């Protein structure tokens, strides 16, 4: 009887070990922490978003391993202009992005292109990666859901204005995209575009981190 119990225990241990080998690394499994938006400052940000008529869903705080995390983040459901690929975003990023879409993108499209923007295309928000996608070095603001990459704009008349194809396109297209870049520099902590380096040839990178010593935006 005792021998039989020992054999059963050994089999269970072996099964557990095999399943662990085939499973995800523990660091890749999001771990829920304390409740989101517990500070007065973070709750004020949510109130400001509601005042902008932005619809959103509050997400739970998660530690995602490797230093990556989504703390006090939301899922934007509607900011007034359809926007693709928005994942978790910090509230300040979402608030500034919504204001940029409303007060910069919409009027600039009418002024320079004579049409409305019906869709903003992005490459997403949260991604657990390092700056410039390297395997080592400083974590990107994307690793904290504090950044968004904007790639193109779809107009009501069917045109698609992209960073890759139109940054150096027709004069009105160039003027439109440069106006958006200029306006973003007043709202975000870091703004990177096609003239920064080849990795940004196809998108604007916006994040809320201020890297300049005087607190001004890093705008390139």
UniProtKB/TrEMBL annotation:
Statement: the UniProt record of this protein carries the keyword Phosphoprotein: no
Q: Which residues form the signal peptide?
A: 1-19
- Positions of the Extensin-like C-terminal domain: 44-220
> What InterPro entries does the record tag this protein with?
Extensin-like_C
Q: Which residues form a coiled coil?
A: none
Keywords of the record, alphabetical order, are:
Signal
**Has keyword Signal?**
yes
The organism named in the record is Sphingorhabdus lacus
Lineage of the source organism?
A: Bacteria, Pseudomonadati, Pseudomonadota, Alphaproteobacteria, Sphingomonadales
Identification of the protein by name: Extensin family protein
């Amino acid at each position: 009887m005792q021998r039989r119990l020992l054999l059963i225990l050994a089999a269970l241990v072996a099964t557990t070990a095999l399943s662990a080998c085939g499973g995800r690394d523990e660091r890749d499994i999001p771990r829920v922490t304390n409740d989101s938006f517990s500070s007065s400052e973070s709750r004020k940000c949510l109130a400001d978003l509601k005042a902008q008529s932005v619809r959103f869903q509050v997400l739970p705080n998660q530690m995602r391993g490797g230093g990556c995390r989504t703390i006090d983040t939301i899922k934007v459901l509607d900011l007034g202009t359809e926007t693709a690929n928005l994942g978790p975003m910090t509230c300040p990023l979402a608030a500034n992005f919504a204001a940029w879409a409303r007060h910069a993108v919409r009027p600039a499209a009418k002024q320079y292109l004579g049409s409305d923007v019906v869709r903003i295309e992005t490459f997403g928000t949260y991604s657990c990666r390092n700056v410039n996608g390297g395997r080592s070095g400083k974590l990107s603001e994307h690793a904290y859901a504090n950044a968004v990459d904007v790639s193109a704009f779809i107009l009501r008349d069917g045109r698609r204005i992209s960073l890759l194809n139109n940054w150096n396109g027709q004069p009105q297209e160039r003027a439109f995209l440069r106006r958006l870049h200029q306006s973003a520099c007043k709202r975000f902590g870091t703004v990177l575009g096609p003239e920064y380096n080849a990795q940004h040839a196809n998108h604007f990178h916006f994040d809320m981190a201020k890297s300049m010593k005087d607190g001004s935006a890093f705008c390139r």
